[in-house]
Structures are given as structure tokens and as C-alpha cells.
Specification:
With 292 residues, the chain is α+β, with helices and mostly antiparallel strands. It has helices spanning 4-18, 137-140, 153-160, 167-172, 182-191, 205-226, 231-241, 273-276, and strands at 23-28, 48-55, 58-64, 73-77, 82-87, 102-108, 113-118, 126-130, 259-263, 268-272. Helices cover 27% and strands 21% of the residues. Helix 1 packs parallel to helix 6 and helix 1 runs antiparallel to helix 7 (231-241). Keywords: DNA damage, DNA repair, DNA-binding, Glycosidase, Hydrolase, Lyase, Metal-binding, Multifunctional enzyme, Zinc, Zinc-finger.
Length: 292
């Protein structure tokens, strides 16, 4: 799943490639992906793209148009298996709904454009056309962004204070923190030397210091690594930067122990027992405790 650093990389790329261009055509190939109907998607045709922004894991292309009141935004969330495929010269092949991974195609005035694609059978990519980004329910519910200049160590402490839930879940909850998902929560907790099953309410002030530093450093470095890369290179850049996530069975780069996994219904977490749990191995079930 694309998370904050990759989404920011896509936003930076789109800002540089699309600002000032007009949208000449929007083709919806997966109608279930389009979550809004007013404004209609055709309101984007003829609109000029004026800005690109990120809200958590949502990408926002702002436009201006003289064809109607308001300034429609094209907003999309790539979910677990979605991606953006960019073309300097957009293909002219006909898109056949249901016969392609393409959910949406956007054509631009200089001949370029992009597809939003989604692999697999579980479709959760979401596209919105709205006059105000806050009209998107997922954006309206977002917590603060960890890389916002106003997000401090005390902000983090206030968010986790009294929460009797595992810190891994807190980091992934978009209503608490915007933009962090499964992969980067693994990386943050590894850098903080913290068990994913630690209760948020049990963290000491020193734990919070360590978690804040790990979050800031991990996300800042990942955003920097994604900066300037075209969409086709962002996924590989993400994989290369991972210390533990997606590296089950490999060697922890910090201590040399083996990286372990805990599997859930639709995903997994990765961690190092030596670095994070005092050498104790986490039981491989959703509500497990540390093995005795």
C-alpha cells in the first residue's frame, strides 16, 4: 500500500508535470471506484490543474474552470493495490471496463496523462470529484500529519495518552495520525526499539521521546528518498529503504538477529525480537501476547 512517502513522491511528480495543463478527457473504467456524482466527473474536462497536494494518503489535484461555479478537485486514494501509471504520451487504445486493471484515465492538454490502476480482486481504490477536499469523508476524519511543522513531541504524547490499544494500531489509525500505514509503522517501531504490541498508555516519557524521534527520522528520510522519482521507480525505492518490513527471514541490519513476522487475515507485521521485544518471540495470531 502506498503510504505517506510514496504518496508525497507522487504529489511532487504530479505537481511538476501537470500544473498549468488542462484536463481534456476523463475516462472511468471502474465505476465502483468513483465515489461521488456531484460535481460530475465531466466537470473536470477543460479545467486547468493549479496545484497538487497530499492529505494523509489522499492525492488532491486542484483545478480551476470557467465552465461552472466552484473549483473542482480530483482526489484519489490508491488503497492497498492501487497505483498511478504516468505516460508522457497517453496511449490511444480503447479501455474496456472489466477487462483491464485501469480504473480511471486522465488525458492532459500536452498529450500526456495518467491511469489509476488496481491489481487483484479486492477493489478499494477510491476516486472523488469535489469542490472542497473536506467533502471526502476520509480526509475529514484525518488526524494530524506527523511531518507537519506544528507536530511536536508533545502533540504525539497527547494523541497516545490513555489509549489502551497497541502502539502498532495507533500508528496505523488515520484518525489519530495521517499517512502512516503497515510498512512504515513497522519501520518506526523498529527504529524506536519498541514492541508493536506495547500498549500506548503504558509508554513512559522516554518511550515517547524515542518514538517521536524514530517517526520523524524514518518518515523524513523516506520522503527524501522518494523525492524526484517518477512513479515507476517509487515502489522499488520503498522496498530498498525497508529495514524490517517485508524482510521476513532476513538479517536485522542493527543486531544480526532474524527478522520475524506475525500474520493476520490480510497482512503481516515484521519485527526484530532482539531489538524490540527483549528477545521474546511474538505469537503468530492477532490477539497474541508475548510468548513466555
Amino acid at each position: 500500500m502506498p503510504e505517506m512517502p510514496e504518496v508525497q513522491g507522487l504529489v511532487d511528480f504530479l505537481r511538476g508535470r501537470t500544473t498549468g495543463l488542462s484536463i481534456t478527457r476523463v475516462t472511468v473504467a471502474a465505476f465502483a471506484a468513483l465515489k461521488t456524482y456531484d460535481p460530475p466527473v465531466d466537470a473536470l474536462v477543460g479545467a486547468e490543474i493549479t496545484a497538487a497536494a497530499r492529505h494523509g494518503k489522499f492525492i488532491d489535484l486542484a483545478t480551476t474552470t470557467s465552465a461552472r461555479d466552484g473549483e473542482p478537485h480530483l482526489i484519489f486514494h490508491l488503497a492497498k493495490a492501487g497505483w498511478l501509471r504516468w505516460y508522457d504520451q497517453l496511449p490511444t487504445t480503447l479501455i474496456r471496463p472489466g477487462k483491464t486493471p485501469i480504473a480511471l484515465r486522465v488525458a492532459l492538454s500536452d498529450g500526456s496523462g495518467f491511469d489509476l490502476t488496481e491489481a487483484g480482486t479486492k477493489k478499494s481504490l477510491a476516486v472523488y470529484v469535489v469542490d472542497d477536499p473536506q467533502d471526502v469523508p476520509g480526509i475529514a476524519r484525518l488526524g494530524p500529519d506527523p511531518l507537519d511543522p506544528t507536530f511536536t513531541r508533545n502533540t504525539l504524547a497527547g494523541l497516545i495518552e490513555g489509549r489502551r490499544t497497541q502502539i502498532k494500531g495507533v500508528l496505523r489509525d488515520q484518525s489519530i495520525l495521517a499517512g502512516v500505514g503497515n510498512a512504515y509503522s513497522d519501520e518506526i517501531l523498529h527504529d524506536a526499539r519498541m514492541s508493536p504490541y506495547a500498549l500506548a498508555a503504558s509508554l513512559t516519557p522516554e518511550d515517547v521521546d524515542r518514538l517521536y524521534a524514530a517517526m520523524t527520522e524514518t518518515l523524513t528520510d523516506a520522503v527524501a528518498a522518494a523525492s524526484g522519482k517518477p512513479p515507476a521507480e517509487l515502489k522499488d525505492a520503498k522496498r530498498r529503504g525497508m529495514q524490517v518490513h517485508g524482510r521476513r527471514g532476513e538479517t536485522c541490519p542493527v543486531c544480526g538477529d532474524v527478522v520475524r513476522s506475525v500474520f493476520f487475515a490480510d497482512n503481516s507485521l515484521e519485527y526484530c525480537a532482539t531489538c524490540q521485544t527483549g528477545g521474546k518471540v511474538l505469537a503468530d495470531r492477532r490477539l497474541s501476547r508475548l510468548l513466555k
